[in-house]
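WARN retry 2 of 3 for item q-0093 after timeout on previous attempt; input resubmitted unchanged.
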Amino acid sequence: EQFKSFPMVPTDYPLIVAGVEISLSFGISYWDGAIIAAAECLGATTLYTEDLSHGQHYGSVQAVNPFVTVTPDNVHEATSSPYG
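OK item q-0093 returned
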């Protein structure tokens, strides 16, 4: 019963075609392409995943790996430096 509250996208012909097109466009697996297509159908702009390239935009959806550690842009932003 709890699953009824989650937004769902049916795996229908248009979703399969969109998944194949995304897969071919970005050189990723069909399954990842189908997930991105479903996210687009729901209007999602962020997809949390470990399987796709962090920060990459796949159409209107950006892949974000929640386990990627952020590194400072330059040495002056580092919080711990061996040079004090």
